[in-house]
Design goal:
The protein is α/β, with parallel strands linked by helices and 474 residues long. The chain is 56% helix and 19% strand.
Length: 474
């Protein structure tokens, strides 16, 4: 399977996500250094806790950078749905690291709160200034990562933004703790560290839950409702909807039913309409549609057609006639089969066809089937105008009698079976199809009666111009 090439928009989105992740790595390195030095010099557990927290941010930012680079890779032989879930794996890994570090910080905070022998942090003005600078950096990177995550629908950047937001809250808590220590409350630093630990655990659990939902392909009720609503106006029966999400993409599997007498081409066109409707409803979506025949409905003729075309080796049916005789119905039809079949094999196909019709349309009693070989082309020649002058005059007279106007076109073809006349006539555009078909039949019958040498007369009806000056369309 050839790997599809990402489009320009997707490449731009990936580039922007990667730039944001790279900036996060640089910022994390700077913050770890600042907090670690300040914590060691002052002896503040809150600052050391924040340094450890930022160290996990550095690991998380590196994971994010790797995941963003990996997720943009297109589908390949081993990853048919792309690599988008790499971002969710990175986010899950970040959550685990966050919870481990938070557990250590909480343990150390409780030891300082209830234990003995720990030293009081040395809070200086420069230490407070360092925390103020850290808060400014945390604010900038939280806002930048949050905007990028929303714009590019990146779970890895969203986890980064959550990381940075918890850093911001933690840094603010440390600042408050150091101020209180300076004011004479020595346990405020440990309380601030404990607050940071609880805050980070809550954020990590939320992040882990979202990542697990995606990795486990948890169904989205909102996405399914959007799909069903988008398809409500289309002439299809929605039998199954499955939606899963990864890295801003929705993958939708649909099973729909269409009328059983719909042809393959029409069914394919309907599937295309369904795909377009789903993409409009969900945005960036990969849609796979499986089409099934719906239950037989409509007239006897439609049900017969649907049953016949479902039989293997039946290529085409025509001249379907349903005859009402007393309390029963009889059926006659012509069926075209592959030309290479032997008579015994062709008869076997027709037997299966008749059995299928009898099962799906039990109202039908007797079935009479005429077998024909399917041919790709019927070769014919065009007779000269003088050869068909009499027949053309008859057609002109008959058409004028039944429509009040001359035919819009008359063509003759000499086929293997004999001469065929193809006639175009114009009828009132508002005329019901039933009446137009009856009028065309009357023209065909009258021409055949007066020109028995014609093996077939085919009349095409088109809507006439309301002014009577010509026909519109074909």
């Amino acid at each position: 399977m050839a790997a599809p090439t990402p489009d320009v928009e997707e490449l731009e989105r990936a580039g922007a996500r990667e730039r944001t992740a790279r900036l996060s790595v640089v910022a994390a390195v700077g913050l770890v250094s600042i907090k670690l030095v300040a914590g060691l010099l002052t002896g503040s557990l809150g600052l050391l806790a924040e340094a450890a927290h930022s160290a996990t941010d550095l690991v998380a930012a590196l994971l994010t950078l790797f995941a963003v680079r990996l997720s943009v890779r297109p589908a390949d032989r081993e990853h048919h749905y792309g690599h988008g879930k790499a971002e969710h794996l990175a986010a899950l890994g970040e959550s685990a690291v966050l919870m481990l570090v938070s557990a250590f910080i909480a343990f150390e905070s409780l030891r300082r709160l209830f234990g003995e022998g720990h030293s009081e942090p040395d809070v200086t003005l420069w230490a407070l200034a360092v925390i103020a600078v850290v808060i400014l950096i945390d604010t900038w990177r939280t806002v930048a990562s949050g905007r990028a995550a929303r714009r590019y629908e990146s779970p890895a950047l969203a986890s980064n933004a959550l990381h940075f937001a918890s850093d911001l809250a933690g840094s603010f808590a440390v600042l408050v703790g150091l101020v209180l220590v300076r004011a004479g409350e020595p346990k405020a630093d440990a309380i601030a560290a404990l607050f940071v630990a609880v805050l980070v655990v809550i954020a990590a659990l939320r992040l882990a839950r979202r990542s697990v939902d995606v990795l486990m392909d948890r169904a989205s009720g909102e996405a399914e409702s959007s799909v069903r609503e988008a398809l409500a106006s289309l002439p299809v029966e929605v039998r199954r909807v499955r939606v899963r999400h990864a890295a801003g993409h929705d993958f939708v599997d649909l099973v729909i039913a269409v009328p059983p007498d719909v042809g393959v081409g029409q069914a394919h066109a309907t599937a295309d309409e369904v795909e377009d409707a789903v993409r409009s409803a969900l945005g960036r979506a990969d849609v796979v549609v499986h089409v099934e025949p719906g239950p037989p409905e409509g007239s006897l003729r439609e049900r017969v057609t649907a049953a016949a075309l479902a039989v293997p080796d039946v290529r085409e049916i025509h001249n379907v006639r349903v005859i009402h005789t007393g309390d029963a119905y009889e059926l006659s039809l012509h069926v075209k089969l592959p030309p290479g079949l032997a008579l015994i094999d062709a008869h076997s196909v027709v037997a299966r066809l008749e059995k299928a019709i009898a099962a799906d349309v039990p109202e039908i009693g007797n079935i009479h089937t005429h077998m024909e070989p399917l041919t790709d082309l019927d070769w014919a020649s065009t007779p000269t105008r003088s050869e068909v002058a009499d027949q053309r005059a008859v057609i002109d007279e008959v058409v004028r009698r039944y429509t009040g106007a001359p035919p819009r076109g008359v063509r003759f073809r000499d086929a293997e079976a004999g001469r065929i006349a193809m006639v175009d006539i114009a009828l009132p555009p508002e005329q019901p199809l039933r009446v137009a078909h009856q009028r065309a039949g009357e023209v065909e019958e009258a021409v055949r009666e007066r020109c028995p040498q014609l093996v077939d007369v085919i009349v095409h009806t088109r809507p006439g111009d309301p002014t009577g000056d010509g026909a519109v369309g074909r």
